[in-house]
């Protein structure tokens, strides 16, 4: 099964994405929205993105991809202070996923993560 959604990275797009992924596990929804939020925070509101979620049945992995048009702004997990209200997105993705990474092209990049299990709720 594959899900794909092209949208503008805005704060209101986060709950919209979560709604579209309601048939998926909490971990899938959380990782997808954290990757989308990373685009908002680091590239700016209104950045066009494509979100893809691919499952490999029957009990393979679930791959989440967020593609944006900036091949140079590479994500990196931060060490946020305990009192910070943000800055833990990639740390969460790293903790929940089996692995994650970035695929760069000339005109875009795709930040992806893979979770074990089918990802359906």
Question: Order of helices and strands, N to C?
Answer: EHHEEHEE
- C-alpha geometry: globular
Helix tally equals 3
Largest sheet: 5 strands, antiparallel
Level-1 CATH class name? Alpha Beta
Q: Order of strands side by side in the largest beta sheet?
A: 1-2-3-5-4
Proportion of beta-strand residues: 25-35%
Quote the distance from N terminus to C terminus: 14 Å
Low-confidence stretches: none
* Alpha-carbon Rg, integer: 14 Å
InterPro entries: Anti-sigma-factor_SerPK, HATPase_C_sf, HATPase_dom
Pfam families: HATPase_c_2
Protein name: ATP-binding protein
GO molecular function: ATP binding
Key features of this structure:
five-stranded antiparallel β-sheet; 3 helices; 121 residues; Anti-sigma-factor_SerPK; kinase; Heat Shock Protein 90; alpha+beta
């Amino acid at each position: 099964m594959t899900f794909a959604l092209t949208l503008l990275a805005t704060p209101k797009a986060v709950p919209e994405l979560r709604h579209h992924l309601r048939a998926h596990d909490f971990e899938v929804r959380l990782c997808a929205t954290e990757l989308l939020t990373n685009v908002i925070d680091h590239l700016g509101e209104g950045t066009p993105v494509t979100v893809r979620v691919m499952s490999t049945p029957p009990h393979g992995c679930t791959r989440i991809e967020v593609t944006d048009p900036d091949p140079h702004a590479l994500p990196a997990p931060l060490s946020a202070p305990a009192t910070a209200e943000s800055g833990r997105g990639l740390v969460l993705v790293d903790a929940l996923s089996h692995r994650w990474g970035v695929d760069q092209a000339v005109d875009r990049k795709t930040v992806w993560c893979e979770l074990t299990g089918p990802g359906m709720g």
